[in-house]
Amino acid sequence: MDQLTSLLGGFSVALEPINLLWLLIGAVLGTAVGVLPGLGSAMAVALLLPVTFALDPTGAFIMFASIYFGGLFGDSTAGILLNTPGNSSAIATTFEGHRMARDGRAAKALGTSAIGAFIGGTIATTAVVFLAPYLATVASLFGPAEYFALAAFAFVAISSVVAESVVRGLTALGLGLLITLVGIDQASGAQRFTMGAPALFDGISIIVVTLGLLAIGEVLYVGSRIRRERSRTGTLAIGGGSPFLRGAEWRKALPAFLRGTSFGLPFGVIPVGGSEVPTFLAYGTEKRLAQRRRDPDFGTRGAIQGVAGPEAAGNATAGTAMGALLALGLPTSATAAMMLAAFQQYGMQPGPLLFERSADLVWPLIASLFLGLVILLVLNLPFAAVWAKLLVIPRHYLYAGITVVAMLGVYAIASSTLDLWLLLAIGVIGVVMRRFEIPLAPVLIAAILGPLAETELRRALAVSEGDPSVLVGSPITVVLYAVMAAAVAISAVQHLRHARRDARQRVGAR
After folding, report:
1. Is residue 393 within 8 Å of 103, Cβ to Cβ?
2. Helix, strand, coil percent values for the chain (each to nearest 5)
3. What residue ranges of the chain have pLDDT lower than 70?
4. Beta bridge partners of 235
5. How many angstroms separate the Cα of 338 from the Cα of each of 24, 97, 308, 341, 436?
6. What was the pLDDT predicted at 255?
7. 239 contact partners, CB below 8 Å, separation of at least 6
8. Which among 161, 241, 370, 424 has the fewest CB atoms less than 10 Å away?
């Protein structure tokens, strides 16, 4: 009851007209920045941090709360429409979302994304209100061995589930892990595969990898097949339709919303770098369920569940990440780290005492998270069809624009021409992978989590003085490895069944 009383007090502050204005401005700015490749909510908070010094702390953090979720929706908008996610958290949504856009259901995909963001974020923020005192217990259970087991679980689960062939999935995983080896070895300081180029000392940016595989790879792949498609229309797809879900679509999407939210809730407390792991796990789960029910749309025309699950997971992770930041002072994502910097700029240190010492700031901030989600839903759901009109642009103009925006986004990060050449090279690799039906998701998840897995593995072995038994020395690691083995076994059996069924169908056709 104390939490409810405090939350109602927070709403009374957040609903003041001036604070509602900051919420609206933050939602618009967050969405706009999130659409740009290579940027996102973390960059939006960083760019606007100096601007907010003129505001009182309550107004500043209320604006940041709206930017926080607005950037996530902007990331997904770019991914769905242009196959160019604004940030890595939107990669999993992009797979089925862009297929829906190409099939003429862009507005539906954007509407599903907006609803999923609202549901996942609202449930997570509600959990923060009541469970913030208990978040420390969850976070304290994970050490280096647990983090490595979690990364390994994500590697194998994604590789075995999202690919039609386990071999192709593991091949893609290996390619992603090779990319992570480029740069300075954090433990020894030795150069690895840098060829003496100082620009590679920090490794290959995940933004370069993402835009290379998804954006430039798509542009080059479509360009290589343009002669085969001359009979088709000159536009990518018709961007019409309603963004609102009908009864049958709600029945499909609602379970996926809830499954995605259940993936995202715990990951916001665990510092694994952001929402990439739960969004990929949610996508893999929806793909596995689609194979079980033999859904012909998943992986072809685009399935609504493939957007609903990852989007809810990403926003649920963002919601509980805010709870971990406020209650523990633990930033579990890049955006949360920027929020921590903003707190410190105002002379406040998030942690267990924050709710006592700065309750007049914390509860309006939490209330503004709820209001920001509502504002984003009201803004973006009706305008989803307007966003979708981007797809009416003639194909050659659209893909030229995607290339220019991707190049500018990559160059803006480090002003490195080498990054542009890497972007093109990875784009060519993306074309080859599409040609031989090698999945992209394992490459991306390996590139994102590879450094974390390596660091935590070395840390665990250093603590145990080289004893590998430390990797299975806790109940959490044992459970994760057991679930991983079961997922691989089930996936292998399913692949064998599908292969046998296809073989019988080919024999019957003869």
Report:
1. no
2. 75, 0, 20
3. 1, 34-53, 86-88, 132-140, 158, 160-165, 226-241, 270-274, 328-335, 337-338, 341, 344-345, 352, 384-385, 387-392, 395, 491, 495, 498, 502, 506-510
4. 394
5. 20, 29, 27, 5, 40
6. 92
7. 101, 104, 106, 107, 385, 388, 389, 390, 391, 392
8. 424
The confidence score (pLDDT) of residue 377 equals 87
* Secondary structure (DSSP) of 26-66: HHHHHHHHHHSTT--HHHHHHHHTTGGGGS-HHHHHHHHHH
CB count in 10 Å sphere of residue 221: 17
Strand (E) or helix (H) holding 136:
helix 135-139
| Single-letter amino acid code for the residue at 296 | P
DSSP per residue, 310-348? HHHHHHHHHHHHHHHHHHH----BHHHHHHHHHHHHTT-
Cβ neighbours of 240 (radius 10 Å): 14
Tokens of 116: 């999923």
Rounded CA-CA distance 201/198 in Å is 5
Q: What pLDDT is recorded for position 391? A: 61
89: tokens are: 């958290």
pLDDT at residue 119, as a whole number: 92
- Give the Cα separation of 510 and 507 in Å (integer): 5
CA distance 155 to 449: 8
Q: Can you give the pLDDT at residue 429?
A: 93
Nearest residue to 206 (alpha-carbon basis) of 475, 425, 400, 448: 448
Half-sphere exposure at residue 96, Cβ-oriented, CA atoms within 13 angstroms? 30
Burial readout 7-37 (b: 16 or more C-beta within 10 A, e: otherwise): beebeebbeeeebbebbbebbbbbbebbbbb
Residue 4: count of CB within 10 angstroms of its CB: 10
231 DSSP 8-state letter: T
Is the Cβ–Cβ distance between 144 and 460 less than 8 Å?
Answer: yes
Backbone angles phi, psi at 273, to 5 degrees: 105, -10
273: β partners? 333
CB 286 within 8 A of CB 238: no
**If phi over 0 gives left and psi between -120 and 50 gives alpha, with beta otherwise, what is residue 420?**
alpha
Domain tally, the chain = 1
Beta bridge partners of 509: none
Look at residue 142 and give its three-state secondary structure.
coil
From 224, 226, 230, select the one nearest 432 (Cα to Cα). 224
CA-wise closest residue to 423 among 179, 208, 176, 222: 208
Token pair listed for 341: 């910097």
Write out the residue range of the structural domain in which residue 403 sits. 2-509
Q: State residue 279's pLDDT score.
A: 87
**Which of 334, 313, 327, 326 has its CA nearest to residue 267?**
313
Token couple for 59 = 């107004």
